[in-house]
């Protein structure tokens, strides 16, 4: 079964896979000060996603709006915590698939992610090798020593 069968948007505009449970008659405003308190997540290597989520939940717990559940508040606020590459990640995965991400089956998606992670590791090791080569640092292996002595 293709991904598009799991995801059926309710309108023609590009929508998130996460649907906020709407309270039909309740309208609410979130104080601007809350937005300044939200932690930012950039997706950098040194950032801890779990720590980001803990801080996010702590800020959301400060918001107390009558007739609005905490789940709705969290769903409304979470996208405002993402920055830089993390915010663009969903569109990047779709473009890697040639725009056919929703046509792929779950098995194809798992293999795509495995391939992406392998390429990411290979790219990182290649960059390290290339950087060392520029500094004229070369690694000698045990079998190379015998060739040097001749």
From TrEMBL:
It comes from the Eukaryota. This is Uncharacterized protein. It comes from Spirodela intermedia.
